Amino acid sequence: MKIHLPRSLKISRKHSLSWPILAISFLVNFSIATAQHVSVLSATFQPEVPVQADPFSLVISSSFQSIASTINVEIKSENGNPVYEAAYYLVIPTGTNQVLLSNGEVVFRHYFNNPESAFLQLNGRLPTGNYSVCYRLSGSALSEIAETYCTSFDHLFDSYLFLIFPENEDTISTVYPSLIWQNSYPIESAVSQFRITVVPMLPGQSKDEALLSNTPVFINSNLTTYTVQYPFDAQKLEAGKAYAWQVAEINEGLITNRSETWVFHIAKEEKNRDIPYVETSRDISSAFVTSVNGLVGFTVSEKYYSQVIDCVVRDEQGEIIIDNLINNNKIITNIKKEGENQYLLDISEYKLRKGYYMLTMRNEKNDEFKVRFYVDK
Asked: What confidence tens digit (pLDDT) does each residue in 95-130 have?
């Protein structure tokens, strides 16, 4: 191979042994100066934005004047399952620039046959989990893939699943509480089910440790409402003990969201305290009864047997603060007979403040009976 030097480069005979080295050095420098490259410096994915809006951006450095390129995007779950793949055609300008894939032409989008991908296709966003996303650049000016750039991220699907009752660290008297939670979208528009888990807490445990380690006393994975009554046939909750609980959202068999973990306490039993009863009257009376362990005892005297059809509780200002007690099974019948009917009102989960209240019952004959009761704690 002959190497031609510029005429301006004169080499004396004295240095003739070193001129090939100079020539090779010149050619290497010339090759480096004219090399062209494309590289990805950084990439950003916004998982809170629907994937159909193409929320991908890259910072690309290119020494080409401009280059037509296809950029493939692939998202995988933590266990390596492919979740989403798409390709975009666009022109990368020279220099260092931020490139928004939403400005390119979508070549294809592809979803896969697994729960994560099905959730993404339905909701536009990834379910809660750990993921990786890889970007691959290729183009006609490049003999092969020019650059691959990957990054990983944690994602929490923010559908705002939160607990309502019992409140965190609350103490309740009933061992059959109503457990209530809420979500950020209406239940009728949801395709998910909910799983509730209640576990006992051991001394020294945190609530998350208890949920992870202890055997549940109650678990239900097929709920389609935002409330469930602790069942009578489940393992009984014990007075004086604490319980941790959490609700998870399930879509296509995949956990897509979790609530916080809360704790509630069952009040210790008050021994040697019988529940007193007071007779109701048709008019407001000064007589009252004090609630015991969240229960109010009262009797209704009447000449005939009747059925209670309505029952409400009012505060001292006469405002109704609890209604629908009959449908919510908060009236317990102890004795039912002609002449005298004996009842218990369960107010344990309503967290009434200390003070006086008025209970009003109405029977099928439209007769009203009233009784005052006092909540002392």
From this structure: 999 999 999 999 999 999 988 888 888 778 888 889
Name the residue type at position 203.
P
Give the span between the Cα atoms of 366 and 280, in whole angstroms. Answer: 15
More confident residue, 38 or 34: 38
Percent of the chain with pLDDT over 70: 76
Beta strand pairing status for 320-322 and 331-335? unpaired
Category of 193 on φ-ψ map: left (φ > 0), alpha (ψ -120 to 50) or beta: beta
List, in order, residues 6 or more apart from 251 with CB less than 8 Å away.
115, 119, 122, 127, 191, 192, 193
Distances (CA, A) of 246 to 199, 200, 243, 260, 375: 9, 12, 10, 6, 30
**Percent of the chain that is helix, strand, coil (3-state, to 5):** 10, 50, 40
Is 9 within the bounds of a domain? Answer: no
SS (H, E, C) 248-263: EEEECCEEEEECCCEE
Compute the CA torsion angle 117, 123, 126, 128 (nearest 10 deg): -110
* Residue 147 domain flag: yes
Segments forming the whole domain that contains residue 300: 277-375
- Provide the 8-state DSSP code for 202: P
Asked whether 187 and 249 are in contact (CB, 8 A), the reply is no
Residues 84-104, mean pLDDT to the nearest whole number: 93
Nearest Cα to 144, choosing from 232, 48, 70?
70
Per-residue pLDDT band at 273 (split at 50, 70, 90): low
Residues 42, 146: one domain? yes
198-249 pLDDT, tens digit per residue, is: 999 998 899 999 999 999 999 998 888 889 999 988 999 999 999 999 999 8
pLDDT at 368 over 70: yes
Torsional class of 196: left (φ above 0), alpha (ψ -120 to 50), beta (otherwise): beta
Q: Where are the alpha helices (DSSP H) in the chain?
A: 19-34, 115-123, 207-213
Q: Is the pLDDT of residue 22 over 50?
A: no
Q: How far apart are CA 176 and CA 167, in angstroms?
A: 15
Residues 260 and 289 in one domain: no
Give yes or no for a contact between 23 and 3, defined as CB atoms under 8 angstroms apart.
yes
